[in-house]
Design goal:
CATH architecture: Up-down Bundle
Radius of gyration: 39 Å
CATH class: Mainly Alpha
CATH topology: Outer membrane efflux proteins (OEP)
Structural class: alpha+beta
Helix content: 55-70%
Strand content: 5-15%
Distance between the termini: 50 Å
Largest sheet: 4 strands, antiparallel
Shape: elongated
Length: 486
Protein backbone atom coordinates (compact mmCIF):
# COMPACT_ATOMS: atom_id res chain seq x y z
CA UNK A 1 0.00 0.00 0.00
CA UNK A 2 2.80 2.46 0.85
CA UNK A 3 4.42 2.49 -2.64
CA UNK A 4 1.05 3.17 -4.32
CA UNK A 5 0.41 6.21 -2.10
CA UNK A 6 3.66 8.02 -2.86
CA UNK A 7 2.76 9.37 -6.32
CA UNK A 8 -0.55 10.74 -5.04
CA UNK A 9 1.01 12.40 -2.01
CA UNK A 10 3.81 13.78 -4.17
CA UNK A 11 1.35 15.23 -6.67
CA UNK A 12 -0.72 16.81 -3.89
CA UNK A 13 2.41 18.25 -2.30
CA UNK A 14 3.36 19.78 -5.66
CA UNK A 15 -0.09 21.40 -5.92
CA UNK A 16 0.22 22.84 -2.40
CA UNK A 17 3.72 24.22 -3.04
CA UNK A 18 2.68 25.74 -6.37
CA UNK A 19 -0.46 27.28 -4.88
CA UNK A 20 1.50 28.75 -1.96
CA UNK A 21 4.10 30.20 -4.33
CA UNK A 22 1.32 31.76 -6.40
CA UNK A 23 -0.18 33.44 -3.31
CA UNK A 24 0.27 37.15 -2.51
CA UNK A 25 3.15 37.49 -4.97
CA UNK A 26 1.36 35.88 -7.91
CA UNK A 27 -0.61 37.44 -10.71
CA UNK A 28 -3.86 39.28 -10.15
CA UNK A 29 -6.46 39.54 -12.91
CA UNK A 30 -8.15 42.83 -13.67
CA UNK A 31 -6.66 46.28 -14.40
CA UNK A 32 -3.91 47.70 -12.21
CA UNK A 33 -4.84 51.08 -10.78
CA UNK A 34 -3.57 54.28 -12.30
CA UNK A 35 -4.78 57.67 -11.14
CA UNK A 36 -6.73 59.30 -14.00
CA UNK A 37 -6.00 62.76 -15.30
CA UNK A 38 -7.81 65.58 -13.53
CA UNK A 39 -8.70 69.05 -14.83
CA UNK A 40 -6.33 71.75 -13.73
CA UNK A 41 -4.67 75.07 -14.50
CA UNK A 42 -1.17 76.48 -14.24
CA UNK A 43 -2.23 79.17 -11.77
CA UNK A 44 -5.24 80.62 -10.01
CA UNK A 45 -7.00 83.50 -11.73
CA UNK A 46 -7.30 85.34 -8.44
CA UNK A 47 -4.04 85.98 -6.63
CA UNK A 48 -3.18 88.08 -3.56
CA UNK A 49 -2.04 91.62 -4.45
CA UNK A 50 1.72 91.88 -5.15
CA UNK A 51 3.77 92.65 -2.07
CA UNK A 52 1.27 91.27 0.45
CA UNK A 53 3.36 88.15 1.09
CA UNK A 54 6.89 86.95 0.47
CA UNK A 55 7.75 83.48 -0.65
CA UNK A 56 11.14 83.84 1.04
CA UNK A 57 9.41 83.95 4.43
CA UNK A 58 7.42 80.73 4.53
CA UNK A 59 6.56 81.05 8.23
CA UNK A 60 4.19 83.88 7.31
CA UNK A 61 2.04 81.86 4.96
CA UNK A 62 2.76 78.13 4.99
CA UNK A 63 -0.29 76.17 6.10
CA UNK A 64 0.21 73.83 9.02
CA UNK A 65 -2.05 71.52 10.95
CA UNK A 66 -3.21 74.18 13.42
CA UNK A 67 -3.96 76.75 10.72
CA UNK A 68 -6.22 78.81 13.01
CA UNK A 69 -3.14 79.96 14.91
CA UNK A 70 -2.41 82.25 11.94
CA UNK A 71 -5.04 84.63 13.36
CA UNK A 72 -3.19 85.06 16.65
CA UNK A 73 -6.30 84.80 18.83
CA UNK A 74 -5.62 82.76 21.99
CA UNK A 75 -9.27 82.23 22.84
CA UNK A 76 -9.94 80.88 19.35
CA UNK A 77 -6.91 78.57 19.73
CA UNK A 78 -8.27 77.23 23.02
CA UNK A 79 -11.70 76.56 21.55
CA UNK A 80 -10.26 74.84 18.47
CA UNK A 81 -8.23 72.47 20.64
CA UNK A 82 -11.43 71.19 22.26
CA UNK A 83 -12.90 69.96 18.96
CA UNK A 84 -10.47 67.05 18.64
CA UNK A 85 -11.25 66.00 22.21
CA UNK A 86 -14.99 66.43 22.60
CA UNK A 87 -16.79 66.86 19.27
CA UNK A 88 -19.19 63.96 18.75
CA UNK A 89 -19.39 64.27 14.96
CA UNK A 90 -15.63 63.87 14.80
CA UNK A 91 -15.78 60.83 17.07
CA UNK A 92 -18.33 59.25 14.73
CA UNK A 93 -16.01 59.74 11.75
CA UNK A 94 -13.10 58.35 13.78
CA UNK A 95 -15.08 55.20 14.60
CA UNK A 96 -15.92 54.72 10.92
CA UNK A 97 -12.25 55.01 10.01
CA UNK A 98 -11.21 52.45 12.61
CA UNK A 99 -13.89 50.06 11.35
CA UNK A 100 -12.64 50.48 7.78
CA UNK A 101 -9.08 49.80 8.91
CA UNK A 102 -10.24 46.62 10.67
CA UNK A 103 -11.74 45.47 7.37
CA UNK A 104 -8.21 45.27 5.94
CA UNK A 105 -7.34 42.59 8.49
CA UNK A 106 -10.54 40.75 7.62
CA UNK A 107 -9.55 40.74 3.94
CA UNK A 108 -5.95 39.69 4.64
CA UNK A 109 -7.15 36.66 6.63
CA UNK A 110 -8.22 35.04 3.34
CA UNK A 111 -4.53 34.60 2.43
CA UNK A 112 -4.20 31.85 5.05
CA UNK A 113 -5.79 28.46 5.70
CA UNK A 114 -8.73 28.00 8.03
CA UNK A 115 -7.93 25.57 10.82
CA UNK A 116 -10.41 23.90 13.15
CA UNK A 117 -10.12 21.19 15.77
CA UNK A 118 -12.46 19.56 18.24
CA UNK A 119 -13.37 16.28 19.97
CA UNK A 120 -16.55 14.33 19.38
CA UNK A 121 -18.26 11.41 21.11
CA UNK A 122 -21.03 9.35 19.54
CA UNK A 123 -22.95 6.16 20.40
CA UNK A 124 -24.18 4.14 17.40
CA UNK A 125 -26.84 1.41 17.08
CA UNK A 126 -26.93 -0.50 13.77
CA UNK A 127 -29.96 -2.29 12.38
CA UNK A 128 -29.76 -6.06 12.63
CA UNK A 129 -31.77 -6.34 9.40
CA UNK A 130 -29.43 -4.35 7.19
CA UNK A 131 -27.74 -6.13 4.28
CA UNK A 132 -24.42 -7.89 4.88
CA UNK A 133 -25.23 -8.38 8.57
CA UNK A 134 -23.68 -11.49 10.09
CA UNK A 135 -25.38 -12.47 13.31
CA UNK A 136 -22.88 -13.10 16.05
CA UNK A 137 -20.07 -11.43 14.09
CA UNK A 138 -21.39 -7.87 13.58
CA UNK A 139 -21.24 -5.43 16.44
CA UNK A 140 -24.55 -3.58 16.52
CA UNK A 141 -23.86 -1.26 19.47
CA UNK A 142 -20.60 0.67 19.77
CA UNK A 143 -19.12 4.05 20.66
CA UNK A 144 -16.75 6.29 18.67
CA UNK A 145 -14.36 8.73 20.32
CA UNK A 146 -12.75 11.16 17.88
CA UNK A 147 -10.32 14.07 18.07
CA UNK A 148 -10.34 15.62 14.63
CA UNK A 149 -8.60 18.57 13.02
CA UNK A 150 -9.39 20.09 9.67
CA UNK A 151 -7.64 22.58 7.41
CA UNK A 152 -9.08 24.28 4.35
CA UNK A 153 -7.33 26.70 2.07
CA UNK A 154 -8.32 28.39 -1.17
CA UNK A 155 -5.08 29.71 -2.70
CA UNK A 156 -5.29 33.13 -4.27
CA UNK A 157 -4.35 31.96 -7.76
CA UNK A 158 -6.17 34.72 -9.65
CA UNK A 159 -5.64 37.61 -7.23
CA UNK A 160 -9.18 37.86 -5.88
CA UNK A 161 -7.92 38.14 -2.31
CA UNK A 162 -5.21 40.62 -3.33
CA UNK A 163 -7.78 42.81 -5.05
CA UNK A 164 -10.04 42.54 -2.01
CA UNK A 165 -7.17 43.68 0.22
CA UNK A 166 -6.45 46.53 -2.20
CA UNK A 167 -10.09 47.54 -2.07
CA UNK A 168 -10.20 47.41 1.73
CA UNK A 169 -7.00 49.42 2.04
CA UNK A 170 -8.26 52.07 -0.39
CA UNK A 171 -11.59 52.23 1.45
CA UNK A 172 -9.75 52.68 4.76
CA UNK A 173 -7.62 55.47 3.30
CA UNK A 174 -10.77 57.11 1.92
CA UNK A 175 -12.29 56.88 5.40
CA UNK A 176 -9.14 58.45 6.87
CA UNK A 177 -9.48 61.29 4.36
CA UNK A 178 -13.15 61.63 5.31
CA UNK A 179 -12.09 61.93 8.94
CA UNK A 180 -9.61 64.66 8.03
CA UNK A 181 -12.27 66.44 5.98
CA UNK A 182 -14.76 66.31 8.86
CA UNK A 183 -12.13 67.72 11.23
CA UNK A 184 -11.25 70.46 8.74
CA UNK A 185 -14.92 71.40 8.27
CA UNK A 186 -15.58 71.47 12.01
CA UNK A 187 -12.53 73.61 12.75
CA UNK A 188 -13.48 76.00 9.92
CA UNK A 189 -17.08 76.18 11.12
CA UNK A 190 -15.96 77.01 14.64
CA UNK A 191 -13.57 79.71 13.41
CA UNK A 192 -16.26 81.25 11.20
CA UNK A 193 -18.80 81.23 14.05
CA UNK A 194 -16.22 82.74 16.37
CA UNK A 195 -15.46 85.62 13.98
CA UNK A 196 -19.17 86.21 13.36
CA UNK A 197 -19.62 86.45 17.13
CA UNK A 198 -16.70 88.86 17.49
CA UNK A 199 -18.07 90.90 14.58
CA UNK A 200 -21.35 91.23 16.46
CA UNK A 201 -19.38 92.32 19.53
CA UNK A 202 -17.82 95.04 17.37
CA UNK A 203 -21.25 96.19 16.24
CA UNK A 204 -22.51 96.14 19.81
CA UNK A 205 -19.60 98.34 20.83
CA UNK A 206 -20.46 100.77 18.02
CA UNK A 207 -24.10 100.82 19.09
CA UNK A 208 -23.18 101.37 22.73
CA UNK A 209 -20.91 104.27 21.78
CA UNK A 210 -23.60 105.73 19.55
CA UNK A 211 -26.19 105.24 22.28
CA UNK A 212 -24.09 107.25 24.71
CA UNK A 213 -23.69 109.99 22.11
CA UNK A 214 -27.44 109.95 21.43
CA UNK A 215 -28.11 110.21 25.18
CA UNK A 216 -25.97 113.37 25.25
CA UNK A 217 -27.81 114.70 22.19
CA UNK A 218 -31.17 113.99 23.84
CA UNK A 219 -30.05 115.78 27.01
CA UNK A 220 -28.91 118.77 24.94
CA UNK A 221 -32.21 118.87 23.04
CA UNK A 222 -34.16 118.90 26.30
CA UNK A 223 -31.99 121.71 27.70
CA UNK A 224 -32.43 123.74 24.54
CA UNK A 225 -36.18 123.11 24.64
CA UNK A 226 -36.37 124.23 28.26
CA UNK A 227 -34.49 127.38 27.28
CA UNK A 228 -36.84 128.05 24.40
CA UNK A 229 -34.08 127.64 21.81
CA UNK A 230 -35.43 124.33 20.38
CA UNK A 231 -38.94 123.00 19.87
CA UNK A 232 -40.65 119.79 20.99
CA UNK A 233 -40.03 118.18 17.59
CA UNK A 234 -36.26 118.22 18.23
CA UNK A 235 -36.77 116.49 21.57
CA UNK A 236 -39.05 113.84 20.04
CA UNK A 237 -36.60 113.15 17.20
CA UNK A 238 -33.65 112.86 19.60
CA UNK A 239 -35.61 110.52 21.84
CA UNK A 240 -36.68 108.39 18.85
CA UNK A 241 -33.08 108.10 17.67
CA UNK A 242 -31.93 107.11 21.16
CA UNK A 243 -34.55 104.36 21.54
CA UNK A 244 -34.00 103.06 18.01
CA UNK A 245 -30.25 102.60 18.60
CA UNK A 246 -30.99 100.98 21.95
CA UNK A 247 -33.32 98.47 20.23
CA UNK A 248 -30.66 97.68 17.63
CA UNK A 249 -28.17 96.93 20.39
CA UNK A 250 -30.63 94.54 22.03
CA UNK A 251 -31.31 92.81 18.69
CA UNK A 252 -27.60 92.08 18.19
CA UNK A 253 -27.77 89.92 21.32
CA UNK A 254 -30.13 87.46 19.60
CA UNK A 255 -27.61 86.53 16.91
CA UNK A 256 -24.71 86.58 19.34
CA UNK A 257 -26.42 84.06 21.63
CA UNK A 258 -27.04 81.74 18.68
CA UNK A 259 -23.39 81.81 17.61
CA UNK A 260 -22.30 81.21 21.21
CA UNK A 261 -24.61 78.17 21.39
CA UNK A 262 -23.25 76.88 18.06
CA UNK A 263 -19.67 77.11 19.35
CA UNK A 264 -20.64 75.24 22.51
CA UNK A 265 -22.10 72.39 20.46
CA UNK A 266 -18.99 72.21 18.29
CA UNK A 267 -16.71 71.80 21.31
CA UNK A 268 -19.00 69.15 22.78
CA UNK A 269 -20.58 70.94 25.74
CA UNK A 270 -24.22 71.89 26.44
CA UNK A 271 -25.25 75.16 24.78
CA UNK A 272 -26.04 76.84 28.06
CA UNK A 273 -22.73 76.04 29.72
CA UNK A 274 -20.47 78.24 27.55
CA UNK A 275 -20.12 81.98 28.08
CA UNK A 276 -17.75 84.05 25.96
CA UNK A 277 -17.11 87.53 27.29
CA UNK A 278 -17.81 90.30 24.74
CA UNK A 279 -14.72 91.40 22.87
CA UNK A 280 -14.60 93.36 19.60
CA UNK A 281 -12.97 91.76 16.59
CA UNK A 282 -9.26 92.37 17.09
CA UNK A 283 -7.46 89.38 15.53
CA UNK A 284 -4.98 89.96 12.74
CA UNK A 285 -6.06 89.15 9.20
CA UNK A 286 -3.42 86.88 7.59
CA UNK A 287 -2.81 86.90 3.86
CA UNK A 288 -2.68 83.31 2.58
CA UNK A 289 -0.70 82.45 -0.57
CA UNK A 290 -2.77 79.85 -2.46
CA UNK A 291 0.18 78.18 -4.18
CA UNK A 292 -0.44 76.38 -7.48
CA UNK A 293 -3.65 74.53 -8.43
CA UNK A 294 -1.93 71.15 -8.79
CA UNK A 295 -1.18 71.17 -5.04
CA UNK A 296 -4.89 70.91 -4.28
CA UNK A 297 -4.80 67.27 -5.40
CA UNK A 298 -2.59 66.55 -2.39
CA UNK A 299 -3.87 69.17 0.07
CA UNK A 300 -7.62 68.57 -0.05
CA UNK A 301 -8.88 65.61 2.01
CA UNK A 302 -12.14 65.43 0.05
CA UNK A 303 -10.20 65.05 -3.21
CA UNK A 304 -8.01 62.39 -1.59
CA UNK A 305 -11.13 60.53 -0.43
CA UNK A 306 -12.60 60.59 -3.94
CA UNK A 307 -9.32 59.35 -5.42
CA UNK A 308 -9.04 56.49 -2.92
CA UNK A 309 -12.62 55.42 -3.63
CA UNK A 310 -11.63 55.41 -7.28
CA UNK A 311 -8.82 52.98 -6.45
CA UNK A 312 -11.30 50.81 -4.53
CA UNK A 313 -13.66 50.78 -7.52
CA UNK A 314 -10.77 49.70 -9.75
CA UNK A 315 -9.97 46.80 -7.39
CA UNK A 316 -13.61 45.72 -7.55
CA UNK A 317 -13.19 45.14 -11.29
CA UNK A 318 -10.40 42.65 -10.55
CA UNK A 319 -12.60 40.90 -7.99
CA UNK A 320 -15.36 40.58 -10.59
CA UNK A 321 -12.99 39.28 -13.29
CA UNK A 322 -11.54 36.65 -10.90
CA UNK A 323 -14.99 34.99 -10.80
CA UNK A 324 -14.40 33.73 -14.38
CA UNK A 325 -11.60 31.45 -13.16
CA UNK A 326 -11.97 28.13 -11.32
CA UNK A 327 -11.97 28.00 -7.53
CA UNK A 328 -9.24 25.69 -6.22
CA UNK A 329 -9.68 24.29 -2.73
CA UNK A 330 -7.10 22.33 -0.75
CA UNK A 331 -8.19 20.44 2.34
CA UNK A 332 -6.67 18.19 4.98
CA UNK A 333 -8.27 16.21 7.77
CA UNK A 334 -6.62 14.20 10.50
CA UNK A 335 -6.89 13.06 14.08
CA UNK A 336 -7.48 10.10 16.38
CA UNK A 337 -10.50 7.83 16.35
CA UNK A 338 -11.26 4.85 18.58
CA UNK A 339 -14.04 2.90 20.17
CA UNK A 340 -12.53 3.02 23.65
CA UNK A 341 -10.94 5.65 25.80
CA UNK A 342 -7.88 3.47 26.51
CA UNK A 343 -6.79 3.32 22.85
CA UNK A 344 -8.12 6.71 21.76
CA UNK A 345 -4.81 8.62 21.51
CA UNK A 346 -2.60 5.76 20.35
CA UNK A 347 -0.79 5.60 17.00
CA UNK A 348 -3.07 2.89 15.52
CA UNK A 349 -6.03 5.24 16.10
CA UNK A 350 -4.47 7.91 13.86
CA UNK A 351 -6.25 8.78 10.61
CA UNK A 352 -5.77 11.49 7.96
CA UNK A 353 -6.79 12.52 4.50
CA UNK A 354 -5.63 15.11 1.96
CA UNK A 355 -7.63 16.45 -0.93
CA UNK A 356 -7.76 19.05 -3.67
CA UNK A 357 -10.65 20.21 -5.82
CA UNK A 358 -11.26 22.72 -8.60
CA UNK A 359 -14.68 24.08 -9.46
CA UNK A 360 -15.44 26.10 -12.58
CA UNK A 361 -18.82 27.69 -13.24
CA UNK A 362 -19.97 26.81 -16.76
CA UNK A 363 -23.29 28.64 -16.84
CA UNK A 364 -24.70 31.43 -14.65
CA UNK A 365 -27.08 33.15 -17.10
CA UNK A 366 -24.68 36.11 -17.56
CA UNK A 367 -24.32 36.94 -13.86
CA UNK A 368 -20.52 37.26 -13.88
CA UNK A 369 -20.59 39.31 -17.06
CA UNK A 370 -23.19 41.65 -15.56
CA UNK A 371 -21.20 42.04 -12.32
CA UNK A 372 -18.05 42.86 -14.31
CA UNK A 373 -19.90 45.45 -16.39
CA UNK A 374 -21.37 46.88 -13.21
CA UNK A 375 -17.91 47.21 -11.64
CA UNK A 376 -16.56 48.97 -14.73
CA UNK A 377 -19.54 51.33 -14.87
CA UNK A 378 -19.17 52.18 -11.17
CA UNK A 379 -15.47 52.87 -11.79
CA UNK A 380 -16.31 55.33 -14.57
CA UNK A 381 -18.86 57.00 -12.30
CA UNK A 382 -16.21 57.34 -9.61
CA UNK A 383 -13.81 58.88 -12.15
CA UNK A 384 -16.42 61.55 -12.83
CA UNK A 385 -16.91 62.09 -9.09
CA UNK A 386 -13.17 62.50 -8.61
CA UNK A 387 -12.86 65.02 -11.43
CA UNK A 388 -15.87 66.95 -10.17
CA UNK A 389 -14.27 67.11 -6.71
CA UNK A 390 -11.20 68.70 -8.29
CA UNK A 391 -13.30 71.23 -10.23
CA UNK A 392 -15.30 72.11 -7.10
CA UNK A 393 -12.06 72.60 -5.16
CA UNK A 394 -10.73 75.02 -7.79
CA UNK A 395 -14.02 76.91 -7.68
CA UNK A 396 -13.95 77.23 -3.88
CA UNK A 397 -10.41 78.61 -3.91
CA UNK A 398 -11.18 81.07 -6.72
CA UNK A 399 -14.42 82.14 -5.01
CA UNK A 400 -12.69 82.97 -1.75
CA UNK A 401 -9.69 84.62 -3.41
CA UNK A 402 -12.00 86.89 -5.39
CA UNK A 403 -14.10 87.54 -2.28
CA UNK A 404 -11.02 88.62 -0.34
CA UNK A 405 -9.81 90.83 -3.18
CA UNK A 406 -13.18 92.54 -3.60
CA UNK A 407 -13.72 92.90 0.15
CA UNK A 408 -10.28 94.53 0.49
CA UNK A 409 -11.35 97.18 -2.03
CA UNK A 410 -14.73 97.53 -0.30
CA UNK A 411 -13.05 97.92 3.10
CA UNK A 412 -10.90 100.75 1.74
CA UNK A 413 -13.91 102.52 0.23
CA UNK A 414 -15.99 101.95 3.35
CA UNK A 415 -13.27 103.38 5.59
CA UNK A 416 -13.38 106.57 3.50
CA UNK A 417 -17.19 106.61 3.76
CA UNK A 418 -17.00 106.31 7.55
CA UNK A 419 -14.52 109.17 7.79
CA UNK A 420 -16.71 111.33 5.56
CA UNK A 421 -19.80 110.51 7.66
CA UNK A 422 -17.98 111.48 10.86
CA UNK A 423 -16.98 114.82 9.39
CA UNK A 424 -20.53 115.37 8.20
CA UNK A 425 -21.93 114.65 11.68
CA UNK A 426 -19.40 116.97 13.32
CA UNK A 427 -20.35 119.75 10.92
CA UNK A 428 -24.10 119.16 11.43
CA UNK A 429 -23.67 119.26 15.22
CA UNK A 430 -21.79 122.53 14.94
CA UNK A 431 -24.49 124.01 12.71
CA UNK A 432 -27.26 122.82 15.06
CA UNK A 433 -25.61 124.22 18.17
CA UNK A 434 -25.13 127.50 16.32
CA UNK A 435 -28.83 127.60 15.52
CA UNK A 436 -28.22 127.46 11.76
CA UNK A 437 -30.14 124.21 11.15
CA UNK A 438 -32.73 121.92 12.74
CA UNK A 439 -32.08 118.73 14.63
CA UNK A 440 -33.29 116.75 11.60
CA UNK A 441 -29.98 117.41 9.88
CA UNK A 442 -28.08 116.06 12.91
CA UNK A 443 -30.36 113.05 13.08
CA UNK A 444 -29.78 112.27 9.42
CA UNK A 445 -26.00 112.56 9.82
CA UNK A 446 -26.07 110.30 12.90
CA UNK A 447 -28.03 107.64 11.04
CA UNK A 448 -25.67 107.75 8.08
CA UNK A 449 -22.60 107.48 10.29
CA UNK A 450 -23.95 104.55 12.29
CA UNK A 451 -25.00 102.74 9.12
CA UNK A 452 -21.54 103.18 7.59
CA UNK A 453 -19.76 102.09 10.76
CA UNK A 454 -21.88 98.94 11.00
CA UNK A 455 -21.22 98.22 7.33
CA UNK A 456 -17.50 98.65 7.99
CA UNK A 457 -17.71 96.14 10.87
CA UNK A 458 -19.66 93.74 8.66
CA UNK A 459 -17.04 93.96 5.89
CA UNK A 460 -14.28 93.24 8.42
CA UNK A 461 -16.19 90.18 9.66
CA UNK A 462 -16.73 88.93 6.12
CA UNK A 463 -13.01 89.27 5.38
CA UNK A 464 -12.19 87.06 8.36
CA UNK A 465 -14.77 84.42 7.47
CA UNK A 466 -13.65 84.46 3.81
CA UNK A 467 -10.07 83.89 5.00
CA UNK A 468 -11.28 80.92 7.06
CA UNK A 469 -13.08 79.51 4.02
CA UNK A 470 -9.96 80.01 1.89
CA UNK A 471 -7.90 78.08 4.43
CA UNK A 472 -10.51 75.33 4.34
CA UNK A 473 -10.54 75.34 0.52
CA UNK A 474 -6.74 74.97 0.52
CA UNK A 475 -6.92 71.94 2.81
CA UNK A 476 -5.92 73.64 6.04
CA UNK A 477 -2.35 72.34 5.99
CA UNK A 478 -3.36 68.69 5.49
CA UNK A 479 -1.60 66.57 2.84
CA UNK A 480 -2.43 63.18 1.35
CA UNK A 481 0.93 61.93 2.68
CA UNK A 482 -0.79 61.68 6.06
CA UNK A 483 -3.03 58.88 4.81
CA UNK A 484 -2.24 55.53 6.37
CA UNK A 485 -4.00 52.19 6.53
CA UNK A 486 -2.34 49.13 7.93
Amino acid sequence: MAPSNRPRIGALTAIVVWAWAAGPSGCAVGPDYKRPDAPGASSFKEQPPPGTWKQAQPADGVLRGKWWELFGDRQLDALEEKIDVSNQTLKTAAGQYLAARDQIRVARAAYFPTLSVGPSVSRIRLSENQPNTVLGATKFNYSILALQGQAQWEPDLWGQVRRTVEQARADAQASAADLANVALSLHAELAADYFFLRGLDTQKQLLDTTLQSDADELKLARVRFSGGVANAVDVAQAETQYLQVKAQGIDVGVQRAQFEHAIATLIGVPAGSLTLAPSPLAAKLPVIPPGVPSELLERRPDIAAAERRLAAANAQIGIAVAAYYPNVMLSATGGFESGSLASWLQIPSLFWSLGASALETLFDAGRRHALTDQARDLYEAQVATYRQSVLSAFQEVEDNLSTLRILADEAEAQAAAVESARQSLALSNKRYKGGVTTYLEVLTAQTIQLSNERTQADVATRRFTATVQLLRALGGGWTSGQLSAR
